[in-house]
């Protein structure tokens, strides 16, 4: 028996197989054990649903799962039947090893309850019933496993005494003594808990008691199940969908729920469980996203702390440098003041000495003159005063030389210390921030067929160190932020010092997205995106292609029907057929969006369109599969391709025809440019470059090329694209024309 039991033991849980799965390698494994293996491989980035393989624990063979997961593996029914028979044989005696092991309480109370609810048999006297009841649905097994994990978590975090306090005492319901003894088993069949003595008395080891299911003691409410709130002693066995509550059979038959829609408990259980699992999955996912978001926020907070500390240290360093500069300048200016003082005082001392010397000489002369004036003797006076008078006259005449001028500048009166400008600068000290986003001025931007000049303005022009221009071809994506982050074909022009820049070498007739980035030491900011487009490819009429009965102007922009035109040499490119009075442009177009206009004048018979280079030159344009034209024949307007014609509506006063060739979007459109009206659009899957073609049978026409696409053409083209994407283009097809559409 022991050898047989070892063969029937799961290699994971070391218990008898429960709901065994038959693996492709011929080994077996409990369903719950296989589920635990998958759970062990789960992580935040790798949910359970994404695990598609695991290894057999016996032979390490890799088991590949399909989209059903473990449910896609076959159940080992034969092994399960053998286990059921083995359990019956093992339970034939109360002293058998298996019975002794199963009668011992091995799991805490919470795990026992979950096992009972899930229908798992722990021990007892019967085999067949217990075996089939023990193995429920996978959902039930998983539910039991989750409760068991919760119980193991309780055991791991609480001491035995704490667990004992958590487990309520279950008394024997068969004892007559007071108080009753503690129950050791609960009979699921009898729905009664027994102590050891009462169990031996009421459940002898003989039929029919051997088929009773014995489990660890559980409360009476758990073993008996829920009872109906309206009908006493009636167990709930269905669910009312209207009132959203559990009901019994009587409620449905004679109660207030008899007219309500009900479902089985299993169906409602599965549905509610699935809903709860989905919501739980979403909640777990949301929690994971919140955790990631919180981790990012925490990281940003830490970065803020680091940056703040760095900026504070930088502030102290910069301010200390300013203080040191002021201190040094203070010393320098103080030295200059002292040196200037010494120099000025030296000059003033010299002037004072000169004045003193002059004063002494003058005083001596005055004294001598006064002595001479006291002489009354005329002869003596004349003898002595003559020399004195000359000296006094000379001293008086040279008074400006004798008396030095006083220089007021030497008194520091014109010297001042004015630091008002520096004070204002210091008062304006602040930390530098990234400049405000510049603004692209669409109205100032200009374009040619291969260049675009972008103009922008900035509120923080003085704080901007440089600008950076980024541009790429516009693909029609409306989410510019996504386009900016995803496009890998952006062209970058760095280190621009002006508020404008001209980009060369662009594709003609093409839309571009432009960003301008303002940069300084603190960072950079982008402008709002601007959509700018190059003009259409300019072209002229090619004289080498003009029919010999057409006359072209000197600038090759006008063609006129002239029967008396001079003979021209025949070339393969020249229109030569009878009535094929045509000419082609001198450019082949293989990309971009191009617009040109044709001034029709008084001509009432013409055909305007595009064609491949291989289109025949000896027949009307539109008569073959290589050309597409809009044509007028007197009062009838039509479009023609591959020999098929379709009438379209247009004004008899049509004098200016607009042609829009959108090569990238496979369309050729015609417009009444004077009245801003759409006439017709061809849908063409271009395979080769095309050339503009022109045919007339009377009067003359003039072409205007290299034009920007008008706003009304942009609006029609956008509407057509939206209709094509959302609801499909309305097609008005003639029985004689296919592959063409017309919207008026």
UniProtKB/TrEMBL annotation:
<dbReference type="InterPro" id="IPR017907">
    <property type="entry name" value="Znf_RING_CS"/>
</dbReference>
<dbReference type="Pfam" id="PF00643">
    <property type="entry name" value="zf-B_box"/>
</dbReference>
<comment type="similarity">
    <text>Belongs to the TRIM/RBCC family.</text>
</comment>
<dbReference type="Pfam" id="PF22586">
    <property type="entry name" value="ANCHR-like_BBOX"/>
</dbReference>
<dbReference type="GO" id="GO:0008017">
    <property type="term" value="F:microtubule binding"/>
</dbReference>
<dbReference type="InterPro" id="IPR050617">
    <property type="entry name" value="E3_ligase_FN3/SPRY"/>
</dbReference>
<dbReference type="InterPro" id="IPR003961">
    <property type="entry name" value="FN3_dom"/>
</dbReference>
<dbReference type="InterPro" id="IPR003649">
    <property type="entry name" value="Bbox_C"/>
</dbReference>
<dbReference type="InterPro" id="IPR035752">
    <property type="entry name" value="SPRY/PRY_TRIM1"/>
</dbReference>
<keyword id="KW-0862">Zinc</keyword>
<feature type="compositionally biased region" description="Low complexity">
    <location>
        <begin position="131"/>
        <end position="143"/>
    </location>
</feature>
<protein>
    <submittedName>
        <fullName>Probable E3 ubiquitin-protein ligase MID2 isoform X2</fullName>
    </submittedName>
</protein>
<keyword id="KW-0479">Metal-binding</keyword>
<keyword id="KW-0206">Cytoskeleton</keyword>
<dbReference type="InterPro" id="IPR003879">
    <property type="entry name" value="Butyrophylin_SPRY"/>
</dbReference>
<keyword id="KW-0808">Transferase</keyword>
<dbReference type="GO" id="GO:0008270">
    <property type="term" value="F:zinc ion binding"/>
</dbReference>
<keyword id="KW-0677">Repeat</keyword>
<dbReference type="GO" id="GO:0035372">
    <property type="term" value="P:protein localization to microtubule"/>
</dbReference>
<dbReference type="Pfam" id="PF18568">
    <property type="entry name" value="COS"/>
</dbReference>
<dbReference type="Pfam" id="PF00622">
    <property type="entry name" value="SPRY"/>
</dbReference>
<dbReference type="InterPro" id="IPR000315">
    <property type="entry name" value="Znf_B-box"/>
</dbReference>
<dbReference type="InterPro" id="IPR036116">
    <property type="entry name" value="FN3_sf"/>
</dbReference>
<feature type="domain" description="B box-type">
    <location>
        <begin position="223"/>
        <end position="265"/>
    </location>
</feature>
<dbReference type="InterPro" id="IPR003877">
    <property type="entry name" value="SPRY_dom"/>
</dbReference>
<dbReference type="InterPro" id="IPR013083">
    <property type="entry name" value="Znf_RING/FYVE/PHD"/>
</dbReference>
<dbReference type="InterPro" id="IPR001841">
    <property type="entry name" value="Znf_RING"/>
</dbReference>
<dbReference type="InterPro" id="IPR013783">
    <property type="entry name" value="Ig-like_fold"/>
</dbReference>
<keyword id="KW-0175">Coiled coil</keyword>
<feature type="compositionally biased region" description="Gly residues">
    <location>
        <begin position="121"/>
        <end position="130"/>
    </location>
</feature>
<dbReference type="InterPro" id="IPR047064">
    <property type="entry name" value="MID2_Bbox1_Zfn"/>
</dbReference>
<dbReference type="GO" id="GO:0005874">
    <property type="term" value="C:microtubule"/>
</dbReference>
<feature type="coiled-coil region">
    <location>
        <begin position="273"/>
        <end position="307"/>
    </location>
</feature>
<feature type="domain" description="COS">
    <location>
        <begin position="373"/>
        <end position="432"/>
    </location>
</feature>
<feature type="domain" description="RING-type">
    <location>
        <begin position="10"/>
        <end position="60"/>
    </location>
</feature>
<feature type="region of interest" description="Disordered">
    <location>
        <begin position="114"/>
        <end position="154"/>
    </location>
</feature>
<feature type="domain" description="Fibronectin type-III">
    <location>
        <begin position="434"/>
        <end position="537"/>
    </location>
</feature>
<keyword id="KW-0863">Zinc-finger</keyword>
<keyword id="KW-0493">Microtubule</keyword>
<dbReference type="InterPro" id="IPR047063">
    <property type="entry name" value="MID2_Bbox2_Zfn"/>
</dbReference>
<keyword id="KW-0833">Ubl conjugation pathway</keyword>
<dbReference type="InterPro" id="IPR040859">
    <property type="entry name" value="Midline-1_COS"/>
</dbReference>
């Amino acid at each position: 028996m022991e050898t047989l039991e070892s063969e029937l033991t799961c290699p994971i849980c070391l218990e008898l197989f429960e709901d065994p799965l038959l693996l492709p390698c011929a080994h077996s494994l409990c369903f719950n054990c296989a589920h635990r293996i998958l759970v062990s491989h789960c992580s935040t980035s790798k949910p359970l649903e994404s695990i598609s393989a695991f290894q057999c624990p016996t032979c390490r063979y890799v088991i590949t799962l399909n989209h059903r997961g473990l449910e896609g593996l076959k159940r080992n029914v034969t092994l399960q039947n053998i286990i059921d028979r083995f359990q019956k044989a093992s339970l034939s005696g109360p002293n058998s090893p298996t019975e002794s092991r199963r009668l011992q309480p091995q799991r805490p109370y919470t795990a026992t309850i979950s096992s009972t609810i899930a229908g798992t048999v722990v021990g007892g006297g019967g085999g067949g019933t217990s075996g089939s009841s023990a193995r429920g649905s996978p959902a039930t097994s998983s539910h039991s496993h989750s409760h068991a994990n919760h119980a193991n978590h309780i055991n791991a975090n609480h001491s035995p005494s704490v667990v004992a306090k958590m487990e309520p005492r279950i008394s024997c319901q068969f004892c007559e003594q007071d108080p009753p003894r503690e129950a050791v088993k609960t009979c699921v069949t009898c729905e009664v808990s027994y102590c050891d003595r009462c169990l031996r008395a009421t459940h002898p080891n003989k039929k029919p008691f051997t088929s009773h299911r014995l489990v660890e003691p559980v409360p009476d409410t758990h073993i008996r199940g829920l009872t109906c709130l309206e009908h006493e002693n009636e167990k709930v066995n269905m669910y009312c969908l209207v009132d959203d509550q559990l009901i019994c059979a009587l409620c449905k038959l004679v109660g207030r729920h008899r007219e309500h829609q009900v479902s089985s408990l299993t169906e409602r259980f599965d549905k509610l469980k699935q809903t709860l699992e989905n919501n739980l999955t979403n909640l777990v996912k949301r929690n994971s996203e919140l955790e990631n978001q919180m981790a990012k926020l925490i990281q940003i907070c830490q970065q803020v702390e680091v940056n703040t500390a760095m900026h504070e240290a930088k502030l102290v360093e910069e301010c200390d440098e300013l203080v040191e500069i002021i201190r040094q300048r203070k010393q320098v200016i103080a030295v200059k003041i002292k040196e200037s003082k010494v120099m000025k005082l030296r000059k003033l001392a010299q002037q004072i000495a000169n004045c003193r010397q002059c004063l002494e000489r003058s005083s001596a002369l005055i004294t001598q003159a006064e002595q001479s004036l006291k002489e009354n003797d005329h002869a003596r006076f004349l003898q002595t005063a003559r020399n004195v008078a000359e000296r006094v006259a000379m001293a008086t005449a040279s008074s400006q030389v004798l008396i030095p001028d006083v220089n007021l500048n030497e008194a520091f009166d014109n010297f001042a210390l004015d630091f008002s400008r520096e004070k204002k600068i210091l008062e304006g000290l602040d930390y530098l921030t990234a400049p405000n986003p510049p603004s692209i001025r669409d109205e100032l931007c200009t374009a040619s067929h291969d260049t675009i000049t972008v103009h922008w303005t900035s509120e923080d022009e003085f704080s901007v160190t440089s600008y950076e221009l980024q541009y790429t071809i516009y693909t029609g994506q409306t989410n510019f932020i996504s386009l900016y982050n995803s496009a890998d074909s952006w062209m970058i022009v760095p280190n621009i010092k002006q508020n404008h820049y001209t980009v060369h070498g662009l594709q003609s007739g093409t839309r571009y997205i432009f960003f301008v980035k303002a940069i300084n030491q603190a960072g950079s900011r982008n402008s709002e995106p601007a959509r700018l487009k190059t003009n259409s490819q300019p072209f002229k009429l090619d004289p080498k292609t003009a029919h010999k009965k057409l006359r072209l102007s000197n600038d090759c922009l006008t063609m006129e029907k002239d029967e008396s035109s001079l003979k021209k040499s025949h070339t393969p490119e020249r229109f030569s057929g009878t009535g094929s009075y045509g000419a082609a442009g001198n450019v082949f177009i293989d990309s971009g969006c191009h617009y040109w206009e044709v001034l029709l004048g008084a001509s009432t018979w013409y055909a305007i369109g595009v064609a491949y280079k291989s289109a025949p030159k000896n027949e009307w344009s539109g008569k073959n599969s290589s050309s597409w034209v809009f044509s007028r024949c007197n009062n009838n307007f039509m479009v023609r391709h591959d020999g098929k014609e379709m009438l379209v509506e247009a004004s008899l006063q049509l004098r200016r025809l607009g042609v829009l060739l959108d090569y990238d979007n496979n369309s050729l459109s015609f417009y009444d440019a004077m009245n801003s009206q759409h006439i017709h659009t061809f849908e063409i899957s271009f395979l080769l470059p095309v050339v503009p073609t022109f045919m007339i049978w009377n009067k003359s026409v003039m072409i205007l090329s290299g034009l920007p696409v008008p706003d009304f053409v942009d609006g029609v083209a956008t509407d057509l694209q939206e209709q094509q994407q959302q609801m499909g283009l309305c097609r008005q097809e003639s029985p004689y024309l296919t592959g063409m559409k017309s919207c008026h």
